[in-house]
Design brief:
single chain, alpha+beta, 5-stranded antiparallel β-sheet, 12 helices, globular
Length: about 575
């Protein structure tokens, strides 16, 4: 039913402020940062110890003297979204994906329409290189079709979790828009692994030598063995392009002429905090990123930016239990918490004081729902992009998280190939509960209204209320208020609202006298959504031009509070 609601100015008037005015142009949905160039950037090595020390101690100290003011992300288009680029591709953010598409998204060789698809790859698997030491020993293997993979066992500390989390989180990040590898959980027999006579071993100290069967057996012994004799492994498919080096969470790379936006000011890099918080990706550091050279024309190409290695998600443990209890709540070397505890003689009540294993035992470590506060989560050490995240950045990513329904989560968790149904159920309970807390935190302050669809040549614009479609709020508790403004003086206009099934809200756009294609007039519609007895979110401001025979939407703006538009 169409209900006209003219809002009293006293109800919605705020402190006032200037108006962000958008040009009469199409939104930018493609960042042209994939222009081919030459030469290929050089490889470089990122020392783990230095990166940790820099982001834990030296960079925070340097930031004290920067006097840097908070600022919004740079690469945001007029619709408050992120364009496609060498960093990001709009997937779930622009339209629905099926549970199978989300679960197998990074795996281009999997047809979502194939019934009974699984993660098996054609054998035998030929071991061509070994990585026997470090925290994640494994092999580089080649399947019967020539496809290359990194293959790692789970180890004996947390059976199942490392391989399962690597597959699940990679698909989550891919669905959210990032470039990620196809990670699988596979079961193989020892006889299905063939050692290439030319295989070599490369150790972390740089030494190389022939890979012996004894070294292979030592790594195989770290794998979980099923009752039928098969061994459980994580299989990470090689990414497209030639790996170059990790990309950093700050600055730009001088060897890439397309890299012009400081990484800490990219919305997708900042907003990644929300995913890291949700899944507890504590190792959100540059060593788990990769820049790849994508060749497009002879020796010319461009750099694509990947996220890799998610095996720390869903509750990694450490041999030092006191440290593992702090994961997600405090950093490895958290100067703030250490200082606070020193000054208070350790009397502060901390979340890690209450850490305990849940129904999954040590498999999920201390990954839980009960102690989870989305905006208080911390990675292992400081991340310069996460530290600059604003409410708008987090709300943008949360609008994507809101599209992960329960069926999507079940399909994702199935990719983990967990051994028992109770274990799968526990993973689902925690992941779903943490998702809901993410929505509660970042979907209830800035407007959750999104995805504008013009009707009747733009005379009416319909938006989706993610608070309803995500299941966060019942539709019967939602109330909407609207107002409009037209012309250069932003004359207030009454407007009309229509609520429709499935969480759609439509607003009648205000019109301006004398508008035409030759003399376009600026018009604005604002919608405020609130939940009875709970929150009132900031307005969604729809910017448009009245062209006489049509109204063309040119921008969306989400305000913290209501203010009068003025020039």
């Amino acid at each position: 039913m169409l209900v006209a609601i003219a809002l009293a100015l006293g109800l919605l008037s705020g402190c006032g402020g200037g108006l962000r005015r958008f040009p009469l142009a199409e939104p930018m949905w493609l960042d042209r940062d994939r222009r081919p160039f030459t030469p290929q950037p050089p490889e470089w090595y990122s020392p783990y110890v230095w990166d940790g020390a820099d982001n834990s101690v030296f960079r925070p100290l340097a930031d004290v003297w920067r006097f840097e003011l908070d600022r919004e992300s740079v690469n945001v288009n007029s619709m408050d979204e992120v364009p496609d680029s060498s960093w990001y591709t709009n997937r779930l953010s622009r339209g629905p994906l099926s549970p199978v598409q989300i679960a197998y998204g990074p795996c281009a060789d999997v047809d979502p329409a194939t019934p009974g698809i699984d993660d098996d790859v054609p054998g035998p698997l030929t071991i061509v290189r070994g990585k026997p030491d470090g925290s994640n020993p494994g092999f580089f293997v080649r399947d019967a079709n020539g496809q290359m993979y990194l293959m790692k066992p789970d180890g004996d500390l947390q059976a199942e979790r490392p391989s399962a989390s690597d597959a699940i989180a990679a698909s989550v990040y891919w669905s959210a828009g990032f470039f990620a590898p196809c990670n699988r959980v596979v079961f193989v027999r020892r006889e299905e692994l063939v050692l290439d006579p030319e295989a070599e071993v490369r150790r972390t100290d740089g030494r190389r030598g022939p890979l012996s069967q004894r070294t292979v057996d030592e790594i195989l012994d770290k794998a979980v063995e099923l009752p039928d004799g098969r061994l459980r492994f994580s299989l990470s498919q090689f990414i497209d392009g030639a790996p170059i080096a990790p990309w950093t969470y700050e600055g730009t790379w001088p060897h890439d002429p397309n890299d012009v936006i400081p990484h800490e000011h990219r919305r997708e890099v900042r907003g990644m905090y929300v995913l890291s918080s949700w899944l507890s990706h504590i190792d959100s550091r540059q060593e788990n990123t990769m820049s790849a050279w994508i060749e497009v024309d002879g020796d010319r190409g461009y750099v694509r930016h990947y996220m890799i290695d998610f095996s720390d998600t869903l509750g990694i443990l450490f041999t030092w239990d006191a440290l593992a209890r702090r994961f997600g709540h405090s950093g490895y070397f958290d100067v703030q918490h250490m200082t606070e505890d020193f000054l208070t003689l350790g009397l502060l009540d901390r979340p890690w004081h209450h850490a305990q294993f849940g129904a999954a035992g040590n498999v999920l470590g201390y990954y839980d729902l009960e102690r989870y506060e989305p905006d208080q989560w911390r990675p292992g050490y400081g991340n310069p992009a996460y530290e600059r995240m604003t409410e708008h950045d987090a709300a943008w990513m949360t609008r994507i998280v809101a599209r992960f329904g329960d069926d999507h989560l079940r399909a994702l968790i199935q990719r983990g190939r967990w051994s028992t149904e109770p274990l799968r159920d526990e993973v689902f309970r925690i992941v779903r509960g943490r998702r809901d807390r993410v929505l509660e935190r970042w979907l209830t302050r800035l407007s959750p209204l999104t995805s504008p669809v013009p009707e009747q040549d733009g005379a009416r614009v319909c938006v989706e209320d993610l608070a309803i479609t995500s299941g966060l709020r019942p539709s019967e508790t939602r109330v909407y208020l609207a107002r409009g403004f037209a012309g250069d003086d932003y004359t207030p206009r009454s407007t009309a609202l229509e609520t429709r099934p499935e969480g759609r809200v439509c607003v009648e756009m205000p019109r301006a006298d004398g508008a035409s294609h030759e003399q376009p007039q600026y018009v604005i519609a604002e919608i405020v959504a609130r939940t009875e007895g709970r929150e009132t979110t900031g307005p969604l401001r729809i910017h448009a031009y009245d062209l006489g025979d049509e109204v063309r939407v040119v921008g969306l703006e989400r305000l913290h509070g209501v203010e009068e538009p003025r020039r």
